[in-house]
Amino acid sequence: MRKYLKILQKCRLFSGIADDDVIKMLGCLGAKVESFDKKYTILPEGYPAKYIGIVLSGSVQVVQVDYYGNRSILSVMNRAEVFAEAFACAEVSSMPVAVIADEPCEVMLIDCGHILHICANNCGFHQQLIYNLMKDLAAKTIMFHQRIEITSKRTTREKLMTYLMLQAKKAESNSFEIPFDRQELADYLEVDRSGLSAEISKLRKEGIINNQKNHFELL
Amino acid sequence: MRKYLKILQKCRLFSGIADDDVIKMLGCLGAKVESFDKKYTILPEGYPAKYIGIVLSGSVQVVQVDYYGNRSILSVMNRAEVFAEAFACAEVSSMPVAVIADEPCEVMLIDCGHILHICANNCGFHQQLIYNLMKDLAAKTIMFHQRIEITSKRTTREKLMTYLMLQAKKAESNSFEIPFDRQELADYLEVDRSGLSAEISKLRKEGIINNQKNHFELL
DNA sequence: GAAAGTCTGTTGAATTTTCAACAAAAAGGA
DNA sequence: TCCTTTTTGTTGAAAATTCAACAGACTTTC
Q1: B153-218 classified as CATH 1.10.10.10
Q2: How far is the CA of B192 from the C1' of D19 (A)?
Q3: Quick one: CA dihedral A65, A169, A138, B80, positive or negative?
Q4: Does domain B2-145 sit in CATH 2.60.120.10?
Q5: Most buried among A99, A114, A196, B72, using CB within 10 Å?
Q6: What pTM, to 2 d.p., does this model score?
Q7: For testing contact with chain B, the best of A72, A112, A145 (most B CBs within 10 A)
Q8: pLDDT tens per residue across span A85-112
């Protein structure tokens, strides 16, 4: 586990906990590490919702696929970020979404029961872990607010521009990469792919944006 | 404060805490109670995000209004439910949404700083409060997942039917009331009001639903 | 009880999205 | 490198949404 320390230090879940204690804690929590190929389903929809996941390398997508096969991408989680914690913490019986590998990745999985219900050893970092989970979930809620701000717009153009402006703000630059290909961006913005491609071309012709592939620039 | 105990017992924030301790805690946290008329803005967008709110009576709406005046209703919080906790817990500087009184209501406001940073008295319920907040935020996250499941649908009809089916499930009956008038329902589903009205009529003519005003029935 | 104001359903026109199909470009594999 | 597969951009037609306007029903106020 020690080789993952550098990443785990950056993870909100372990903030305020000393390295040695993190190691001890992982043993206590029964953490396990698994590797996945690109597009592999790490946690399928309907699966028991007991694991908290931490991205050690690569990135994962949280997706919802409806009855007709329409995909929504709810979020992308990168290195050192946590996923599936809401379902585990809320103790719902099964996952209402799936988590898939966005690229080849390593993931740490922790059975959340060990976190929610005080462990036999009663290790002193339990409280800090709960506090960190609370902060993490608050941040997630804000992330969803932002996503709703984007998808509540009525036209593809407005959704796209709202998204790009938020990305620029996040990157602190008018020039930035986005973590989606066209189909994925459409599934995140909840719009049609071909219409999205057309809108990107149009915005470029109008001199409002510039882009090549996943690199965008606001003019 | 004692007169609010009956409601506070039902509030997730105080679960697992004895009545007398809740009273003590409220003093320690500097909780205050305020009353608001219908449509009054309880917490405006841009306001410092330091208060956690608890609905004591009536209900409140969490709304987002964009540059052009388009309103999105993010959620409705009823008696004994908590609001604005995500922003306070994430310690963002200002509210990205507004909270308004859906009907005349009483609201308890607690400065979240007192919860996040251990109080001088170091009262023993602090940890339980953090735990409860974590559970509450996990439930909120799941609520947003559901809202996204609804609004990610592409047509007014699909959004409406997805919403109604979730409401029926929640009510455990095919016959139920919804907490929105037509404009509010449109602002929750992210669709046009007139188109929504038309779709409701259409579904009724097709014998798929029945409704009068806010009462709906799935056939 | 009358008047003013709000909410709802309806309609038609304009706008936008979705859908399907295809070709060009890019990426991946042998 | 060549071939196959995937991704992207384009297009036109069909479908759906939005917008504006209005009338009737319902509420609220005086």
Answers
A1: yes
A2: 9
A3: negative
A4: yes
A5: A99
A6: 0.90
A7: A145
A8: 999 999 899 999 999 999 889 999 998 8
